[in-house]
Amino acid sequence: MPVYVDISRCIGCRSCEVACQRVHGGGSHVNVHYAGDHAAVPVFCHHCQEATCVKACYTSALYKDGERTAFVIDKCTGCGLCRLACPFGVVWTDKLAHKCDLCSPNETPTCVLTCPANALSTDYEAASRRARERAAMMAIRGGRR
Amino acid sequence: MSKSLVPSVCPYCAAGCGFYIAVEKDRATGIEYMLEHPASEGALCSKGNASLEVLYSEDRLRYPQVRKGEGWARLSWDEALGLVARRLSRIIEQSGPESVGFLSSSKCTNEENYLVQKLARCLGSPNVDNCARLCHAPSVVGLNMTLGAAAMTNPIPDLANSKCIFIIGSNLAENHPILSRWIHRAKDAGAVVIAADPRLTHTAWLADIFLRIKPGTDVALLNGMANVIVNEGLTDGEFIAKRTRGYSGFAESLRDYTPQRASEITGVPAGDIIRAARAFAISPASSIVYSMGITQHSTGTSNVVAISNLALITGHIGRPGAGIFPLRGQNNVQGACDMGALAEFYPGYRRAEDPETLELFSLAWGVSNLPKGPGLTSTEMIDAALEGGIRALYIVGEDPANSDSHSNRVRDALESLEFLGVQDIFPTATAQLADVLLPAAAWAEKEGTFTSTERRVQWTARAVAPPGEARPDMEIICELAGRMDLGPQFSYPDATSVLSEVNRLVPAYAGITPARLCSCGLVWPCPDAKHPGTPILHAQGFKLEEGRGYLVPVKYQPASEDVSPEYPLLLTTGRVAVHHNAGSMTRRSPSLMEREPELFVEINPADAVPLKVADGDEVIVESARGWTGARARLTERMKKGVVFMPFHFPGTNLLTTDARDPHSKIPQFNVAACRIRRRD
Predict the structure, then answer these.
(1) Domain identity same for B358 and B399
(2) By the 8 A CB rule, do B65 and B436 touch?
(3) pLDDT tens-place string over residues B10-31
(4) Which chain A residues touch B42 with a CB distance below 8 Å?
(5) Residue ranges making up the domain that contains B15
(6) pLDDT reading at A140 higher than 90
(7) Given B31, B177, B203, which is nearest A15 (Cβ)?
(8) B499 plus B593 within the same structural domain
(9) B109 and B14 share a domain?
(10) What is the pLDDT at residue B1?
């Protein structure tokens, strides 16, 4: 159950960043990046099906738990291999590793609840339906977004 | 350990998002989202998420203090209140109550605002105002004149029912992020979004049509659109005939505003003006969303009137999805105005110069000789302080030294006062100039009601105790009144008893009794105890002559300041997502400060290169009134010749002008000529 981002909806307000930092203490596991002058996208753990961070972790502190890339802090040695292995730069090591835990055991991650623009969701169907609807709308309107 | 969840209303903007504060051992330990909230559905922006940091800031004021030379000496509450009462009483005795002014706070509850204006007026001073003067005074004046009610006409979620949303002078994506949720829903259902702004903002990202307008030319754009609508026959003739007056004069006045001429003035291509006008007029339900980009001009009231004209000729008002949405800034600025903390109005927008108003309140409050208004506005009080007409100011939770324009002049004015009393939660720039400084409770440390921008009156509960000896503003005002011989008028045991008095005196609040305020509140007007509230205004006509809205011709007038060889750049000001207004709270919130730590100026690379300014350079920005340091951000967001600075940091308002809108007295924060050079 990863979090899906609808870039057309993201307004770059950084609510997800601050909310993530609030519930996890210390640093945020989400970073909002800006593309050009006004497009924005929150970047965080994709919970990859073939997670390179899990492959790199020799103590199995990082492991796959269903769809989730989970993490047990007790096994972490702080070696930093996961940080190097992550292709998206969303695993950090400050003494010990930290990354998005999907706010487990909560049902819905905090960033999804807090997002004012409804740009984040855990519902793949909703995210893909919206994309299809947008494409249809574009066709009807003759090319405009 | 037991944990309780206390319902609260966000203390930042006026969207009125609710959340629960988790309290353990009398300490606020966390936030839980309020999924059932009608406007926010549990969502919360960055500021709301960081709001608890403010409660536990080391900077909180903890005990009363008096100025001693360059420093401060601690006082007991009894000594401090006695001192304030004596100083104010002496000045009133010597030069009359008009020599004293009160600033109430749009951050305080309705009950507290009601009490501050009651105190000022019972003491005989007509001079009471709040910082609505700096954000939406033109909306109060303009919308009262044209529609008969100074408020957002439809609820926030109703935006989802719009088929065309025209956003002008509002960067809601950063300043009222929750609105984007409803705009996206409208877009999902096929709505067209138009955005007009000098800056390519994150809000522009939502738009299908973006109109990049030259600062201060809004009337030309709006009249240009109206011209297209009238000439192409896209008006709603039936609505105009049945529900408005003044059409023929108005249509006549549009003759000069052809799309070509509007384009020359605004810098927006004529084709885009026509496209926007058609989209707005032909949609079955269109809304206009605006904010301080419209109001903070020397033509602020004209701008607001031009907006209401556009809605009236197309009949886009008083129905679901069709209305005017002025987005208000502070969490309770709507309430502060409703409660009469305004120079020209007693509670319930009763005109301060009307003898009936004075009679009604004299009777209700048991005092004779209530002062006839209008009194001095907050901006005029600053003038009067410099000229000597105002000798003492009592300021509740406002920071004019940072938030007024041309702040060097404001500081001079505050320093020239014989007495300045301030009650606040932080030692703001204004508090630093006070003679007596009283520590107040923050929003979560007291109870009462806030009225959001959609007129939703919500109860906020006390979650935790204030720090040190700090006390709720309501208690401070009542204690002070008691020491100035107004004990009988100010004997309220709690906020509920004040709200009951408001129920009796403000018709729109008559049915908003404490017992009915569940966590989601009630929307005024709510005239009796069984009334469900009125989410959509003007559905049955306007509260004006014959129930008709008023079309008033407005002329484009250039801003009071333009570029010159000496000051070749046009400065416009605004806000960013992680800060709020003058920043006295957000600049003390670590998780927000780490994201936006310093003042910056956005400048187009084409302007920056000749100045040898690179991205990230420290620069000095100068206007005719002052200068400040800032960090340059080179970006195509700004059109060539226009620069942007957020006003959350003290430097920005050193530059802005004190030119004002003649009708509403709001300063022209959004247009100032400036120049930039490298700092080295």
Answers:
(1) yes
(2) yes
(3) 999 999 999 999 999 999 999 9
(4) 113-114
(5) 4-55
(6) no
(7) B177
(8) no
(9) no
(10) 60
Instruction: Collect all residues of chain B within an 8 Å Cβ-Cβ radius of residue A118.
Output: 43, 181, 184-185
| Within-domain flag for B528 | no
pLDDT at A145: 44
Mean residue pLDDT of chain B comes to: 94
> Based on the domain organization, do B307 and B160 belong to the same domain?
yes
- Tens of pLDDT, residue by residue over B454-510, are 999 999 999 999 999 999 999 999 999 999 999 999 999 999 999 999 999 999 999
Tell me how many degrees the CA angle A94-A100-A102 measures, rounded to the nearest 5.
Answer: 150
pLDDT reported for residue B386: 94
The pLDDT tens digits for B61-79 are 999 999 998 899 999 999 9
b/e map B487-521, b = 16+ CB within 10 Å:
eebbebeebbebbebbbebbbbbbbbbbebbebbb
Domains of chain A: 1-44+100-140 (3.30.70.20), 47-98 (3.30.70.20)
Closest partner CB to A38 (pick from B31, B595, B637) = B637
Q: Which two tokens stand for residue B269?
A: 């291509």
**Count of domains observed in chain B:** 4
For the cut 60, the answer to whether the pLDDT of residue A143 exceeds it is no
Can you tell me which residue has the tokens 């003390």? Answer: B588
> What are the C-alpha distances in Å from B506 to residues B348, B524, B527?
5, 10, 9
Interface of B with A (CB under 8 A): 30-31, 33, 35, 40, 42-46, 48-50, 173-174, 177-181, 184-185, 188, 190, 200-206, 208, 577-578, 591-592, 595, 635-637
User: Does the beta carbon of A118 lie under 8 angstroms from any beta carbon of chain B?
Assistant: yes
**How many contacts (CB atoms, under 8 Å) link A and B?**
100
Give the β-pairing of B192-197 and B209-212: parallel
| Interface pTM, i.e. ipTM | 0.92
Task: State whether B34 and B51 are in the same domain.
Answer: yes
Question: Residue B415 maps to which CATH number?
Answer: 3.40.50.740
Would you say residue B540 lies in a domain? no
**Confidence at residue A1, expressed as pLDDT on a 0 to 100 scale:** 61
Q: Which amino acid is at B260?
A: Q
Q: How close B228 gets to chain A, by Cα (Å)?
A: 22
Candidates B43, B185, B592; nearest CB to A113: B43
